[in-house]
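Morning F.,

Quick status update on the modeling queue. The single chain you submitted on Monday has been processed. Sequence for confirmation:
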Amino acid sequence: MRRLTRLLLAVTALLSAFCPAAQTTSATRAQAPESQTVIVVVGAAGEQQFAEQFTQWAGLWEKACSKAGARFIAIGIDNLDAQSDRAKLQKVLADESGQLDSALWLILIGHGTFDGRMAKFNLRGPDLSADDLAEWLAPIRRPTAVINSASSSAPFLTRLSAPGRVVITATKSGFEQNFARFAGYISQAIIDPQADLDKDGQTSLLEAFLTASHRTNEFYSSAGRLATEHALLDDNGDGLGTRADWFRGIRPVQSAAADAELDGYRAGQFHLLRSDTDMKIPPALRAERDRLELEVMELRDARETFSEDEYFSKLESILIRIARIYEQADNTPKNPRQ
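Structure tokens below.
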């Protein structure tokens, strides 16, 4: 315990010296040295009331992108022309595959179907299958998050799961076929300060997923209705997925199988709107910081396999390297044009 106390005090001092309280300002957004890309695809509504809701939720993503300085691309909102929405999405993803560093977000808002074999997202014109999307995403090497917030979306998680990719679906099964309200709640939560569960001044995709899942459950509970959607998150590439009620706070405490890796760690590093503190860290250093943080989480999960001295020795080494990243970021000359 004494060693742990000394270690935590030392690292806390280092981090506090180089990591001031997080704030978010529009000036910082304008100086952002990198630009994420957010693609929102609005599917075939079927009824006017759904069309209005889908358009409203897409608008929330657009506003979030404006605040974050992210590039926003919408498909399915404009008038349908000779090129189908499916073809438009294929082209956009092909164009985006050349970028390697900044994150790519793909959000599907609409209805889905599942025939027992194949899941599809309903578009104006030809629908989008899970196989289609898996093929189009394969060449993309940049950090990627896919949020299929439609009904019957769970099979997309299994098909799209891959290392370094975060996949979220509104349902836990293709047979959850009723209208999914999760789409609205995650659209609201993605930059909502109230969804910042760890109070670090920024809302991660993990926190948005947890908040949206809880708000979805609250809707069904307050309405006295049986929940017909249960969102899943996969970010470790095993295709199993984790539900929000398997987390305590932002930490996963259950996994889909006894020997499965826990989900949530990578999603916790996805932020559409970053805090000032994170924005001050150059992208390359931030990527190294994130990699080291994942090492800490993996070490913590494997703690029982090490002796106490070995565990704390490894932990101390990683935490000191993280603290040095903040020190290096603090001493990095700022580019006045960024």
